[in-house]
Amino acid sequence: MPEDFIYNASTEQAAYFFEIVTLDNISIGENDWVGAFNGDICVGARKWDTEACNGICDVPVLGQNDLLSQGYMLPGQIPSFKIFKVSNLNYYDATASKDSPWSNFGLNFIGFLAGCTSGIDPDNEGICTD
Fold it and tell me: Is the pTM of this model over 0.90?
């Protein structure tokens, strides 16, 4: 697991399913990771091996329930996401195709999550342009 994606367990949790995850308009690989954040606190992560996930993976996004989960998600907050690219050991901010507020036991289905290595935000279709 990437160092910045380490998080504690919590009984409060939701799942964010992404149909497509790309970096610079290319699907990320089976060894890459997606992490969820509340500010700068990692609140969940998943290795993006779609074969192990039956074609569509989810990112667990954990909520605050005790001292070990201080700063984790509260109802109504919207997580942010990052992609960890194993080939170059870098983290990239990623944009979801829609904002889905967190709720305990929530199931959130989102079309895409896209990141751009240039640091720009992808357009509304998840495409990185200069």
Answer: yes
